Automatic annotation (TrEMBL):
One of its GO terms (molecular function) is ATP hydrolysis activity. InterPro entries: AAA+_ATPase (IPR003593), ABC_transporter-like_ATP-bd (IPR003439), ABC_transporter-like_CS (IPR017871), ABC_transporter_ATP-binding (IPR050763), P-loop_NTPase (IPR027417). The keyword Isomerase does not apply. It holds the Pfam family ABC_tran. This is ABC-2 type transport system ATP-binding protein. It comes from Sphingobium jiangsuense. The keyword ATP-binding applies. Residues 5-234 form the ABC transporter domain. CDD domains: ABC_DR_subfamily_A (cd03230). Keywords: ATP-binding, Nucleotide-binding, Transport. Transmembrane segments: none annotated.
Amino acid sequence: MPSIISVRGLRKSYASGHIALHGIDLDIREGEIFALLGPNGAGKTTLISIICGLVTPTAGQVMVGGRDIIRDYKAARRQVGLVPQELHNDAFDKVLATVRFSRGLFGKPRDDALIEKILHDLTLWDKRDAKIMELSGGMKRRVMIAKALAHEPRVLFLDEPTAGVDVELRKDMWRLVRGLRETGVTIILTTHYIEEAEEMADRVGVINGGRLVLVDEKEALMHKLGTKTLTLHLARPMEQLPAALADWNLALKSGGRDLEYLFDARAQEGSGVPALMRQLEALGIGYTDLSTRQSSLEDIFVSLVHSGDIAPGEAMAGKGGGQ
């Protein structure tokens, strides 16, 4: 699949000496949903701001649809729509007028049919004559998306698209983003909601301290780094693990009522589960039920934190802080 965005050696430093980005290399494929994850101050917003032409890089090159974001700024910028994390709308403007005006800013001819379709798709048509100040926070965010789509961009950046919205609206937004991808729009989103990336993304990038820690297919990432947990609900609680079980990565949970076994299901030597079950039988340790769980993207992120790739104090908790 061809790349619609190509980033090479991207660096951003400030007069204070702070380096926001350290030589970023990244390709975004046309038509994909790419999730960029990272703790506060990791460089997510700096990176997308440079790609969108809002911040000038110190070094490196960014190409959008084959256009250099510096040398051919207007042509590159026309291909990009940006929905920022903060809502910046004129409170007294009406919905239809502000979306129509946004299209004109990019030199596009008036197209009432297109604007109407965008507003319908975003459930905004009934609000077209409402002042933005009269809208809920979720509706205001939809207006921001409508403005970003008004000039028909090939790439849409969503910076924390569901921050501050309720769960129901968040799921509506997920459906909307998938629908946009089906029309051929490439979606890049930054998020601190791990479940958002896990639900929507084709690929995931993790950024920390201005460096890309990892970029991979979501499923491949979970396959390579994910683990499984086998939980046995014991017939009788245990106070401590017998020495005969020392060869397995076991832990007692729920006051000794549950026995957890963490294992790599893809290990060449096998999962160790059959041998564990035989050993439990030999020791007379019974259980009433068992279950297995595949690690989530959040588990993987936490494992990166503990490996030292991301500072533990800055780790996302799945539902914590913003950019």
